[in-house]
Amino acid sequence: MPPSNSPAAKTERLMNLVMTLLYTRRPLSRARIRETVEQYRLAPTDEAFERMFERDKEELRELGIPLATEEISAGWEDEPGYRIHARDYALPQIRFDADELAVLGLAARAWSHATLAAPAATALRKLRASGVEPDDEAFAFVEARLGTSEPAFGPLFDAVLAQAPVRFGYARPGEEAATRHVQPWGLTSQSGHWYLTGLDTDRGEPRVFRLSRISGKVTRAGKPGSYAVPADHDPVAMIRGRREGGRLDLVRLRVQSGSGNALRHRGIETAGDDGWDKVELPYSDPGDIAHELASYGASLIVEEPPAVRDAVITVLRAGADAHEEVGP
């Protein structure tokens, strides 16, 4: 069977080629590369392999990957060998401040909910290989195991990028689900939940939709690029405005040093001298913020109020019970 030409197959082929040339101790001939990289081995003819390999070489160089051409040995006459030197491929020393680490962690958290999970993991591995540790506790410890990913995230993410209208079923607490027609503007995570902001075309007003309340499939209801997102759109402010009139309380936390950068960014931080810092964070609903706090696992302690601490314990126990049911 000839190799697939899909974008995913091409990406996998390029990654296999890079890994092969990066970890070899000596230059590899074309024949050896064809034997090693599975997608090349499946090429139906020598000509098909040659065309594929030439295109891949050019693409790697356009991406800035230092593909070196070297002499293999005297016995190979004029045939060149190929390799990638680790010293040229390695990233330089990279330093990020707390806000930038929080953004990296949030981006990986978002991508872990959709079809971008594999590219996100690859990007994080490259960062860690260079000595950078993104603030990823918020998705690595508990969240993925509690089943918090929303089925609506993927199609809504694509619709936001394409500026394509959608329709979906949506149910407010205590109400029956009703079909909503929306021009998606943005997706934002707040207090452990994902929200869609956009224009509700049935009501002619901007609205906020919590993804966990979307029922059924999200389907396209118009052509891509058929509307424009307002230039002054601020999804975070829009979500907060939705809660105007509601009372905000403070949760007091102890956060392990080097962890919880996203929480520190949103709250008031007081440095400690025992490896733990104090952070005060505003919240409106114990249940909403409990999922976010629980995702930090042992890196965080809720000091008060008791309602939030109890909600976090409930979430953690639910996660532990789910693991016990699945078994090893």
Plain-language structure description:
It holds the Pfam family WYL. Residues 152-215 form the WYL domain. Residues 251-318 form the WCX domain. The chain has 328 residues and is an alpha+beta fold. It folds into 3 domains: 7-89, Arc Repressor Mutant, subunit A, CATH 1.10.10; 153-242, SH3 type barrels (Roll); 249-326, Alpha-Beta Plaits, CATH 3.30.70. 41% of the residues lie in helices and 22% in strands. It has 13 helices and 11 strands. It has a 5-stranded antiparallel β-sheet with strand order 6-5-4-3-7. Strands 9-10-8-11 form a 4-stranded antiparallel β-sheet. Strand 1 and strand 2 (80-84) form a beta hairpin. Helix 12 (286-294) packs across helix 13 (306-326). The two termini are 37 Å apart.
